[in-house]
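Intended use. Records such as the U2A'/phosphoprotein 32 family A C-terminal domain-containing protein entry shown here are meant for training and evaluating sequence-to-structure methods. They are not intended to support clinical decisions.
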Amino acid sequence: MEARPAAGVGPRLPGRITAELIMRSPQYMSCIKQYEIDLRGNKIAAIENLGATQNQFDSIDLSDNAIVRLDGFPKLLRLKQLLMNNNRVARVARGLEEFIPNLDTLILTNNRINNLQDIDPLATLSKLENLSLHGNPVMTKANYRLYVISKLPRLKVLDFKKVKQKERDAAKALFASEEAQATHASKTFEPDEDLAAAQQQAGVAPPREDGGEQQQPEAEGEAEARATAAPSQEQLIAIKAAIANAQTLEEIHRLEEALKTGHLPSEIRVDGGGAGGKEAVPAPAGDDTVMGEGADANGGDQPEGDAQGGQPEEPRPEGEQEAQPDGQQEGMDVS
């Protein structure tokens, strides 16, 4: 082939497609009689400014660059061949038929197309006959070849292999409707997908190493609301019972403060936990009262044996001191 360099050729300007780069790039008649421009290896990240070619080329070679998306074309009615191998293309824009309607050859070898749905925009290129997706992750998807053939019925060569009639028949049978195509394409999995982030977004707890299901961390707002929620009647009675069984003045003050603020101490549990080793045990069946060891049903307001009917006393107003059993009032001032 015979190259025709532009007049006054200087060093290439890498990074972007500019009118100067187009003017300085090699332009020649290829072996298949197509007028081609060579824009290879310029570290180009996006397709732009191709209007500067003035629609003079049958083929544009953008191989060995860093292009990530197939879009940005002006109206190039003459363009028939686009060489895009060894880039980073992961997406194909829709509506390409408006700008490159006569494209019949598209080479996307060694790019980053992952999912079958990413191929769908190519279906509008009605004259596309030669397509290469060799070296893309999408090739590993189930029924990849049949899916592409069903989407591009005019395709003659796929990945440098001729499309056979039996493949067309199989593709037609497998993807008889658009619904079948959509269902099959939606089952594909993107290899580089962040599974942990996807699980967190979906609200699914990742499995633990021991095989169990890992609990989701409690939201900060929920934890704060849980901590500041008012104690229930049973919890109030349990705190009173713990006060009645307290052994030191410091412990009494701490429990009284908990009663005023509504923050239930961690060692006070209605379901069997107790303060300082003393259990707040439930009353007999049918009675909602929870008593501590040595405390009466009224939360320690009366000595043992003076409870009437086992019914809990209404909680006292905040700040009011609790009466102590006779055996514990001696020698300590709770006020």
